[in-house]
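Ops channel
N.P.: pipeline sanity check, posting one input/output pair.
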């Protein structure tokens, strides 16, 4: 049996401000750091050896993983992958979600956030929030840097990377922890639990609450949030 642990980063500065963040590189809030440390404590109680640690390229994901490792008292190399980044929200990037709901209506904003195939309008390349203007992405080929993404686009890049680099480790019964984002983990859950497009639009993933998944003979035998008080409806079991 193998264990897969999925952790959405702790609360970020733009989570707190209710802004569309996407590929912008913002850090954790004080609350987010505490969530990451608590995630580490909850994982530690499972008393398992984790063989591989993955994060996205983004600071909030990287620092969540660092705090988890510190709490576990583990010193191990981590693997950073831009393919595990949050969805790119296009021209919505940096805007306040509540203000956008007032301007366009809740239905329209929900559609832009959660519909499977609809992309927000592209973010202009001269915008400082465009990934091509953010230092951490300077070594990523330009063709791989999106101006905007739908959930379907995010799914394609996340699952392609997962199949090539992570799934094979789980098949070999290695334990894996992934620190990533709401939409990249939503994509993984769609794949792992075979969720349809309607269910995936309703799936909510709490910050800093490890989703602990047992995989036996390439099939999921159990999954649970380790912080039961902050658990969301998985829409799975």
């Amino acid at each position: 049996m193998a264990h897969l642990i999925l952790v959405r980063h702790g609360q970020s500065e733009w989570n707190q401000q209710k802004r569309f963040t996407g590929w912008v590189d913002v850090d954790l809030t004080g609350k987010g750091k505490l969530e990451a440390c608590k995630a580490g404590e909850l994982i530690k109680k499972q008393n398992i050896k984790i063989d591989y640690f993955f994060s996205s390229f983004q600071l909030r994901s990287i620092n969540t993983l660092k705090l988890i490792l510190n709490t576990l008292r583990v010193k191990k190399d981590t693997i950073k992958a831009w393919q595990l980044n949050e969805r790119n929200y296009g021209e919505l990037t940096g805007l306040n979600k509540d203000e956008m709901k007032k301007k366009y209506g809740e239905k329209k904003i929900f559609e832009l956030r959660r519909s499977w195939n609809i992309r927000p309008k592209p973010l202009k390349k001269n915008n400082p929030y465009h990934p091509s203007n953010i230092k951490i992405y300077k070594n990523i080929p330009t063709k791989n840097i999106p101006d905007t993404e739908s959930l379907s686009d995010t799914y394609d890049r996340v699952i392609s990377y997962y199949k090539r680099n992570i799934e094979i480790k789980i098949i070999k019964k290695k334990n894996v922890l992934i620190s990533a984002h709401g939409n990249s983990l939503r994509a993984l859950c769609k794949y792992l639990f075979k969720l349809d497009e309607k269910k995936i639009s309703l799936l909510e993933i709490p910050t800093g609450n490890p989703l602990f998944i047992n995989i036996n003979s390439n099939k999921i035998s159990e999954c649970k949030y380790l912080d039961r008080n902050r658990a969301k409806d998985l829409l799975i079991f």
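N.P.: looks fine end to end. The radius of gyration is 17 Å.
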